[in-house]
Each structure stands twice: as C-alpha cells, then as structure tokens.
Design brief:
440 residues, binds 2-acetamido-2-deoxy-beta-D-glucopyranose, single chain, mainly beta, 26-stranded parallel beta sheet
Length: 440
C-alpha cells in the first residue's frame, strides 16, 4: 500500500505544468503573452535544476499565447512535453523581443545544451501571415522562427505539429545526435483566415500570400535522422546546411544525415544547401534522402551552391533513393546555384528564378565542388516544365553523378521536352530512362 502511494506521488510530481508557474490560458493580450513567456522560462529552469522531475508540461486542451522571454543556455536532460498549444503572439511586430544583434528571438530558443526532448501531441502555431505580408510590403525582414536549437547534443523532437512559422519552422544548427520523427509541419496560407478570426484577430480583406523562407527544418550537424514526418510548407521541406563558419566542436562538416519516409507537399525540396564557399571550407557530406513522396513540389531534389569569392565548399556523397515526384510546379530535379530572387533584392544569388527563359542568367560557382551524387529509383510523373537541370562550372565540373532507374512520365515541351539538361557534369546512367543530356 505504501509503495503504491509513493508511486502515485512520484507520478504526480513528474512535470512542471505551465499553469503552476503563473501562465494564463486563452488570452492573447500583451501582458499575458509576456507572463506566459516568463512562466515557460521558470518551468524550464525548475525542470533543469530538479533531480527527478525533468519535464515541462504544456497541458492538453490548454492554449497559451506567448512571446519568448529569453534565449536559454546550458540546459541538461530535460523534456518539454507539449500536449496543448503554444501560439505566438500576433500583436505589433515591432514589440517582438530582439537579441543583442537586434534579430527577433525565436519563440523557443535553446543553445549549448544536452539531452533535450520535445514531445507530445500538441501544437506550436506561429500565425505567420502578417509577418509574410510585412516582408513583401515593407521589405523589413526580421522574423522569428518557431523552434531553434544550436550547438547541442542528443536532441529528440517528435510527434508535435508546427504551423505557420513567420520564418523557418525548426532551425537546428550544429546538432550532434538528433532524431526528428512523426512531425507535422504545415504552412497554411488559406486556413489562417479562420484561425486568426478564432482569436479575434480577423484580417479584413484576407488575401493569401506566398510565404517566404517558411522552411520546414533547417539543420546542420552530425549523426541525425529525420523520419516519418509530413511537411507542407511552401519552401525547403528540409534544408541540410553546412556548419556555420565551417567549424564547430562536434564536426567541421555536416554529415551522416538520414531523411526517410516523409510526405512533402508544396515544398521547395529536400534540399542540400545552400552552400556558399568559406575559408574553412563549407561542407555537407554523406546525406541519404529516401522514401520520400513529393506532391506538387516547386522543387523536389534540390542541391544548391551560393555565391562567394573566398574559400571553398564541398557537397559530396549525396544519395536520393526511392523518390516519387508528382506534378512538379517547377523542377523535379535541380542541381546547381541556388535560384533565388527575393523582393527588394535582399538575398539575390544572381541565378534568376526564371532561368532558362530568354534574357535570364544563372552563373555557377566553381569554388563549390559537387561530387558523388546519386539518384536511385526515382519516378517523376507529370509537371509543368521538363524534369530538370544540372548546372556546373567548366573549371570545376560536377563528378561521379549516377542516375539509376530514374524515370519521367511527362508531357511538357518547355524548356527541354521530356529531358534533363546538364552542363559540365560527369556521370553515368544505369538502367535509367531519364538520362541527363551531357552524360556520355
Ligand atoms: C541546468 O542543470 C545543470 C545540472 O544538471 C547545471 O549544470 C546547469 O547550470 C543548469 N542550467 C541552468 C540554465 O541553470
Ligand atoms: C536524465 O533524467 C532522467 C529522469 O528524467 C534520469 O533517469 C537520467 O538518469 C538522467 N540522465 C542524465 C544523463 O542525467
Ligand atoms: C532594430 O531593428 C528595428 C527594425 O526592425 C529598427 O527600427 C531599430 O532601429 C533597430 N535597432 C537597433 C539598435 O539597431
Ligand atoms: C509519438 O507518436 C508515435 C507514432 O504515432 C507513437 O507511437 C508514440 O507513442 C508517440 N509518443 C508520444 C510520447 O506521444
Ligand atoms: C497537421 O496539422 C494540421 C494543422 O493542425 C492539420 O490540419 C493536419 O490534419 C495535420 N496532419 C497530420 C498528418 O496530422
Ligand atoms: C557519429 O556516428 C558514428 C557512427 O555511429 C560514430 O562513429 C561517431 O563517433 C559519431 N560522431 C559523433 C561526433 O558523435
Ligand atoms: C516509418 O514509416 C514507415 C512507412 O510507413 C514504417 O514502415 C516504419 O515502421 C516507420 N518507422 C517508425 C520508426 O515508426
Ligand atoms: C568549442 O567549445 C568551447 C567551449 O565550450 C567554445 O568556447 C568554443 O567557441 C567552441 N568552438 C567552436 C568552434 O564552436
Ligand atoms: C575542425 O577544424 C579545426 C581546424 O582545422 C580543427 O582544429 C578541429 O579539430 C576540427 N574539429 C573537429 C571536430 O574535427
Ligand atoms: C553515412 O551516414 C549514415 C547515416 O545516414 C551512417 O549510417 C553511415 O555510417 C555514414 N557513413 C560514413 C562513411 O560515415
Ligand atoms: C564559371 O566560373 C567562372 C568563375 O567564377 C565564371 O566567370 C563563369 O561565368 C562560370 N561559368 C558558368 C557557365 O557559369
Ligand atoms: C525502379 O524504380 C521503381 C520506382 O520508381 C520501382 O518500383 C522499381 O522496382 C525499380 N526497379 C528496380 C529494378 O529496382
């Protein structure tokens, strides 16, 4: 009997509920979102310093509107279980908290930490709609992400729904040992009208917009698996990035990443990069992307360099296996310089979004090496334009490309009929119906 009572009490003690730290439910007022940010911070620090109660709980059926109170450092062995909802504050953009470089702080932001788990059946909602319009109309681009983890080891993120981030949904940099699974990442340009009105924040004359930079997961690091997730986000579903500055204590090259069993809709690719050259050599290698179904992607297989005149970059051992791509809106396969042209010219890479239309250009960067890239069992069906394009530089051609069992059932005539155009690429095709036109 005593033992049962002890177990009962111990079970009760497990978890720091947000409401126990003064958080207020269902209230989008400025004072409440500040209070809730502070409650989250207190719960996090209490869980971190507790011996046996290492969980922060966002309770089921509870909705907390929140602004970030801080960036958190040096957390050890804690679980953040979100069964309810965290909703980003939707008030005046200029009041969003900034870091010391005047950049908007991500809604949940953790650095230099170990053994973190984010789990639960809940939702982190960014209400990004008005941030997207702010960038398009005003050009001032200083948006928060939903979840950021940097320079941390042993990270698990599972089961949660992330939606409508103002910028990237998950921004994970320099991670050692990561597991992301059963995630649902959605950007819904239409649904927010209903959502916003539910919180009394109805925008009159609602017009859907093309959200910019609403990537699903941006990630760099070593030994990471991302699997069994759904990503509908209008930009890179996953973008595998080099280590910032070309070096870290974990690894100098982003490597050993497996992305498996995911469904992607309206995405701009399961992407590698972009990789600009760097004096320390920016590097991404040994990445496997398998069992992915892309529906109406803007791009699907996307490997991209970025401009730069100093140092080098390396993109090597990249494998796409068992991929299905239906009705691509632009390119099913695009390998070359990042095609980017943003409003107000902020991050123009020189490679036109409309390349290869007449009077457009797309300069390649010989400082970034592409080597050992394989497409195996790739099926492309339908699509507005031809299946794809591979653009490399004659002074540093792409090497060791393999197309094995790649098919395209396609009816487009522009710009390359049912073909895949390539320049300065050495590779071979094995049992493949789709053969890049520069392979010998
Ligand atoms: C978290 O707990 C660890 C010990 O488990 C401690 O070293 C660290 O300083 C704590 N972090 C914070 C932010 O209090
Ligand atoms: C982490 O916390 C759990 C309890 O939640 C405990 O069992 C485990 O030993 C801790 N691990 C480390 C490395 O402190
Ligand atoms: C921070 O950025 C805002 C615009 O986002 C600008 O108005 C303000 O002057 C900046 N502050 C500093 C200290 O740079
Ligand atoms: C996460 O989702 C998986 C698959 O649906 C399920 O098996 C698992 O129990 C869930 N974990 C938690 C902590 O809810
Ligand atoms: C993902 O989340 C969105 C928004 O909450 C929801 O509409 C959708 O049904 C979810 N999808 C899956 C596969 O759980
Ligand atoms: C990454 O995983 C490999 C294979 O399991 C292991 O040998 C290596 O030590 C890991 N690297 C790091 C930095 O943990
Ligand atoms: C992931 O999904 C695949 C295909 O649905 C399934 O076979 C596999 O068991 C799942 N993996 C995990 C870890 O749940
Ligand atoms: C390596 O870790 C040390 C101590 O934490 C830190 O001061 C240093 O900046 C780190 N180096 C890199 C390249 O991240
Ligand atoms: C990264 O590169 C630096 C400089 O070459 C080297 O000192 C360091 O050991 C490397 N770090 C790792 C984790 O390999
Ligand atoms: C490449 O990455 C995979 C994980 O996707 C890992 O199992 C394998 O050991 C890595 N290969 C090398 C040579 O490190
Ligand atoms: C190849 O690189 C050189 C040097 O950057 C550049 O001048 C040239 O335009 C590039 N070629 C192509 C086809 O992009
Ligand atoms: C070729 O790929 C298709 C899927 O695109 C797959 O169904 C088929 O089994 C593959 N053929 C071989 C020989 O692996």
């Amino acid at each position: 009997m005593k033992i049962y009572l002890l177990i009962f009490l111990a079970t009760f003690a497990i978890c720091h509920k947000l409401s126990d730290f003064g958080a207020i439910i269902d209230d989008p007022a400025y004072s409440s979102v500040l209070t809730n940010g502070q409650a989250f911070e207190k719960a996090l620090l209490a869980a971190n310093s507790s011996q046996n109660d290492k969980t922060v709980l966002i309770e089921a059926n509870h909705t907390y509107h929140m602004l970030p109170s801080n960036i958190f450092y040096n957390l050890q062995n804690i679980t953040i279980k979100i069964d309810g909802s965290i909703i980003a504050w939707e008030g005046d953009i200029s009041l969003w908290p900034k870091d010391e470089t005047n950049h908007s702080i991500t809604l949940i932001s953790i650095r230099d930490s170990q053994d973190l788990t984010f789990t639960g059946s809940g939702l982190i909602e960014g209400l990004g709609y008005r941030w997207w319009w702010h960038v398009i109309l005003i050009g001032d681009d200083n948006r928060p992400c939903l979840l950021e983890v940097r320079d941390s080891a042993n990270l698990i993120i599972e089961n949660l729904t992330f939606s409508n981030s103002p910028e990237y949904n998950l921004n994970l940099r320099n991670i050692k040992n990561g597991l992301l699974q059963y995630l649902n990442i959605t950007v819904d340009v239409f649904g927010q009208q209903k959502l916003l009105s539910e919180y009394g924040l109805m925008y009159k004359n609602f017009v859907p917009t093309f959200p910019l930079n609403t990537d699903g997961v941006d990630i760099s690091g070593i030994n990471i698996t991302i699997r069994n997730s759904t990503i509908i986000c209008f930009d890179d579903a996953v973008a595998v990035k080099p280590i910032s500055g070309g070096s870290s204590n974990f690894t100098n090259c982003t490597q050993n990443i497996l992305i498996d069993n995911c469904y992607v809709k309206y995405g701009v690719g399961m992407s590698i990069g972009s990789v600009p050259p760097h004096l320390n050599c920016n590097c991404v290698k040994n990445i496997t992307i398998s069992n992915i179904y892309f529906e109406t992607p803007i791009k699907a297989i996307y490997i991209k360099s970025n401009p730069g005149t100093k140092g080098t970059g390396l993109i090597q051992h990249i494998y796409y296996e068992n991929i299905k791509i239906t009705n691509a809106l632009m390119w099913a396969v695009y390998i070359g310089p990042q095609q980017q042209h943003q409003p107000h010219g902020g991050a123009d890479t020189g490679c036109s979004f409309f390349y290869p239309l007449p009077f457009t250009e797309c300069p390649t960067n010989p400082l970034v090496t592409f080597d050992d890239v394989a497409l195996i069992n790739v099926e492309i069906e339908g699509g507005v334009f031809s299946p794809g394009i591979i653009l490399c530089n004659s002074t540093n051609p792409c090497t060791n490309f393999v197309f094995q069992n790649v098919t395209a059932k396609h009816w487009s005539v522009v710009p390359y009929w049912n073909g895949l155009h390539c320049e300065n690429t050495q590779g071979k095709a094995i049992d493949s119906k789709l053969i890049p036109d520069c392979f010998n």
